[in-house]
Design goal:
Its cofactor is L-ascorbate. This protein is α+β, with helices and mostly antiparallel strands. The chain contains eight helices and 14 strands. The structure holds ligand L4NPZUNZ and 2-oxoglutaric acid.
């Protein structure tokens, strides 16, 4: 006799009916060595708030080294991961619980605060972490450099006189940046249960720019302007870039902060690493005056990044956090 097992409550909680319109075959590709890169970046940010970068200059060997180190970390027992990194609050090791508002996803992660101090990440002081910490530092410096290059191209493409008008926020030694390593383990598919699983629910990134790299496992989806969700074909040798809420504000809504989510099919293990470049906490978030056309009003109330970040972190996935700061037209 075959006994069909029912999904557990936990499994049912993770199942979401997520409609998509199929693969996104036109992901804008920015070649950093191309003469049209500045204009291409701007049109991708206006249209999608999302693009892929090739010829990015981040060594593949560094990316693979960090992936290996991170997978070594994720293969430890939960108690060891918690002991090494602390239980996420919001920084540290987290498992299935995302943020502090009851959101869940089929993933485990390591969320790290990026500081300018050379000893950052040293709290991972276990003997097995000796090669992990320097690798994290090297990776952050390479992806931050890429973020700076892209923000400079954006400023150029927007016709700004100061090349560093946008990049200065993430170059500031007080920049509130983060690094996140996500591991979406295979899902134990059982008979009678073959749904897609919610890996990381719908959200926008609150920061300025996010530099994302994943292994060759699909799962990332983005929302287009018309509200349709599309699947982003994976590409482990490129970086995917998200415009964050803060960049949407700085450009007075010209650039779109992209809604995205991760759905895992459970069969393979997805691994992603993301550098989030944010402004210093004391920075006032308002459209850059150089970008306002004559007579154009700010679409947003004036607020600080600290204020926005705390409201963004208090909210649940799927909520439009920026809406709170939008002026009624
Ligand atoms: C549920 C949440 C997790 C998050 C904070 C939030 O309340 C809403 C935004 C989430 C997000 C998405 C981008 C980054 O991964 C993150 C670190 C961030 O800055 O905002 C996460 C937050 C988190 O995981 O704590
Ligand atoms: O894992 C991914 O590809 C994206 C995850 C994500 O959006 C996040 O960590 O904020």
């Amino acid at each position: 006799m075959v006994v069909l097992s029912n999904p557990t409550l936990e499994e049912m909680f993770l199942v979401k009916v997520m409609k998509t319109s199929g693969p996104f075959s036109n992901v804008p590709v920015i070649d950093l060595t191309s003469a049209t890169a500045a204009a291409d970046v701007v049109s991708a940010c206006v249209e999608f708030g999302f693009f892929k970068v090739v010829n990015h200059g981040v060594p593949n060997a560094l990316v693979s080294r960090l992936e290996t180190e991170a997978m070594k970390f994720f293969s430890l027992a939960d108690c060891e991961k918690e002991k090494a990194a602390g239980v996420a609050n919001p920084f540290g090791y987290g498992n299935k619980r995302i943020g502090s508002n009851g959101d869940v996803g089929w993933l485990e992660y390591l969320l790290l605060e990026v500081t300018s101090k050379p000893k950052s990440f040293n709290f991972l002081s276990e003997p097995w972490a000796t090669s992990f910490c320097p690798c994290l530092r090297e990776y952050v410096s390479a992806t931050r450099k890429l973020a700076v290059q892209l923000l400079e191209l954006m400023a150029e493409g927007l016709g700004m006189k100061q090349r560093n008008a946008l990049s200065k926020f993430v170059m500031d030694s007080r920049s509130d940046s983060m690094l996140r390593l996500n591991h979406y383990p295979p899902f134990p598919m059982r008979q009678g249960f073959n749904q897609s699983i919610n890996g990381f629910g719908e959200h926008t990134d609150p920061q300025i720019i996010s530099v994302l790299r994943s292994n060759n496992c699909d799962g990332l989806q983005i929302a287009l302007k018309d509200g349709n969700w599309v699947l982003v074909p994976p590409d482990q040798s490129s970086f995917f870039i998200n415009v964050g809420d803060s960049l949407q504000v700085l450009t007075n809504g010209r650039f779109r902060s992209v809604r995205h989510r991760v759905e895992t099919n459970g069969a393979r293990s997805r691994f992603s690493m993301i550098y989030f470049g944010g402004p210093p906490l004391s920075e006032r978030l308002a459209p850059l005056p150089q970008l306002l056309r004559e007579g154009e009003q700010s679409r947003y109330r004036d607020f600080t990044w600290a204020e926005y970040k705390s409201s963004a972190f208090k909210s649940k996935l799927g909520e439009n956090r920026l809406g709170h700061f939008e002026k009624q037209q």
